[in-house]
Automatic annotation (TrEMBL):
It holds the Pfam family SAM_MT. Its EC number is 2.1.1.242. InterPro entries: 16SrRNA_methylTrfase_J, SAM-dependent_MTases_sf. This is Ribosomal RNA small subunit methyltransferase J. The gene is rsmJ. It is found in: Cytoplasm. GO terms for molecular function: rRNA (guanine-N2-)-methyltransferase activity. CDD domains: AdoMet_MTases (cd02440).
Amino acid sequence: MTAISVIAECAELVDGAKQLARRFALPFGPTKQPGLQLILTARGLVLRDRQQTKLGDVWVDWASGAVAHRRNFGGGRGQAVAKAVGLKKGQTPTVLDATAGLGRDGMVLASLGCSVTLVERHPAVAALLYDGYQRACLDADIGPWVAERVQCHHGQSRQMIETLPQHDVIYLDPMFPHRAKSAQVKKEMRLFQQLVGADEDADELLAVARQHAAKRVVVKRPDYADFMAGQQPHHQIVTKKNRFDVYMATS
């Protein structure tokens, strides 16, 4: 994994930046090496590529922007991710998102009533996720239910699947290489691929997840991607650019 340091935007934020660096075992302080940097700003922790400043900052904001729009206008329980995890009248599954990233799908599920556990293994991404989670818990609008329904963990996906309490659904959205670089590839994905690369152990996770999920495993894939581990899912929910492959648990 690429080592990435944490710095503060101003003197008032130095202590907070140091705390985040310690929590996620990241170096603190500026580096002479060009490239990615975690910066604690007044609005929150951001990931910035100092060589590609036009990409802008990547950060976790669950209270506003695209996540809030999706939460309010995305179609509720009728949207694809909700159908994939089996969320419907009388059934509100617990979900372990074992490859959480920025936590967006998990947040949508939590807003619909699911108890969601977010797991992220890359320390820099986990730091972004945790910072966004903390701010969301303090938000007057979404804070009460975020604090009640969402948990964040930093750890290896397989280990966390095996040691955390059993969930109804294990959700996997492993990093998958994009076929080409283009403006259509979201800046988050471009920076994430630069930071973490592809999840080479993704196929192994499917078997582990199916052994530990109480009901099902949901795998989010680009529309052009092969089935994880070459295994045909029991059924699929398909959207324009992605699909959700659903596997029944073997536990």
